[in-house]
Amino acid sequence: MIRGFIRLTKYRLSFAAVALLVLSGTVAAASFEEPPVLDAADMVEYIAGDMPLKTEHYTVEERVPTDGFMAEFTVFSDFGTFQASGPGMLAARVNEIRALAALEHIEQDEQFQKGATESVKETGSNLQQLVEHPKETLESVPEGVGRFFKRTYRAAKTGLQKVDDVRHGRTPGVDDDDPASQLPGGPKAPGAASQESLSKVAARAAGDTALNTLGFDDDRRRLAKELAVDPYTTNAVLAQKLDDVTWAAFAGNLGVSVLTSMIPGGLIVSTSSRLTDWVWDTPPGDLRLEIEATLRDAGVDQDRIDRFLRHRWYPLSLQAALAASLKAMDDVDGRAEVIPLALAVDSEGQARFVVQTLAMLARHHKTVEPLTKLAVSGTVFGETEDGALAVMAPVDYLSWNPVAATFAQRKGKMGTARTLHIAGLATDRARDALEDLDWSVEEESVLFVPVIATDVK
Fold this sequence. Notes:
Blueprint: H1 2-8, E1 13-23, E2 26-33, E3 37-39, H2 40-47, E4 58-60, E5 63-65, E6 72-77, E7 80-85, H3 87-107, H4 110-132, H5 134-139, H6 146-167, H7 198-205, H8 209-214, H9 216-227, H10 236-251, H11 256-261, H12 278-281, H13 284-297, H14 302-309, H15 316-328, H16 338-343, H17 348-367, E8 373-376, E9 380-383, E10 389-393, E11 397-398, H18 402-408, E12 418-422, E13 425-426, H19 428-436, E14 439-443
Parallel strand pairs: 10-12, 11-13, 12-14
Antiparallel strand pairs: 1-2, 3-5, 4-6, 6-7, 8-9, 9-10
Helix pairs in contact: 3-10, 4-7, 4-10, 6-7, 6-13, 9-10, 13-14, 13-15, 15-17
């Protein structure tokens, strides 16, 4: 249905109508499309299957604007209004709303409420201790004594670096000398993102070592697993609710199995539809050590590794996914060149674009054609032994626009055989323009979600 819908859609020319692009001395005239507004049902049917657009807890806005690359969904729910860039993120947001409904049901249970009263004082006391004495927290952990101490030291080091960033007014993990990223998915209002508070950064980044040792972090990840959501979610509403419920259960000696027994069956996701277990079953300290080792093996220097691990736009799940893709291409040259581009992102959308691009490249390398080299020119692309160029575009709906035209007309290192692999769909105008510029275009219809499997095969 969506294919027919796309081919019948009428596109208006932008007010510029015709733009002159000057690249490498070549002037080309290109009539650009105004990004269309799509129908949510058609878009979801084509890429996300039978996901309902309306339930008792949420409603997806029928009209879906696009920005030349991504489809921008709006979801109205009992827990607020959420934005979702692309069907993959829409599926994740809908699942998070279901999880929020389940957590709200737990909070209304009488047994849970008894445990909640005991958690308030303990939560405040432990966070205060961490914020007021971060240096002592780090110094009290012996470095290099066993795996536990190594992962705890890495967590504490990353946390202290984030705290120092916030204290000095820096964006965690970002260097002032980094160039601004021009990747799709950038912030709607540059510079508008609010800075996190010192206490929130400290609590999220390092955590209280004693509490994590006793099992709080394990309980939180187990609860997230039962709800089939990312424990490192950037959905602030869900993250806070996971914290609140886990704290109360932890202080009230309520196990995760007791909590899940309070949830109606309709709000539990079946095991067949769950994400890969690694994100829930691996302690965050171990994940950080694996990420650090992978980046070091790829030739990334320690300063960039530290900055990546505390970068505000990469939750730990995305960090692990990026590292896993690089590891899957351990026989490919140029992997270290990816990290400067990754560090330059200015939004979570751009961070996900980088991570998903690498996931597509790793999949291509393993299942389609081996790559010999990764290179960066505006985005990450792969080169084959015979010089062919493979560019991955994790976009939903590509219409012909100045950014796409500028990239498509680049010369220099671009190979003679060039293929653009699009995760979603392209308009006829975009496809024709790319083919006129000697690009081959492949539509792969890949559904991306925030948590990406690390076992690339």
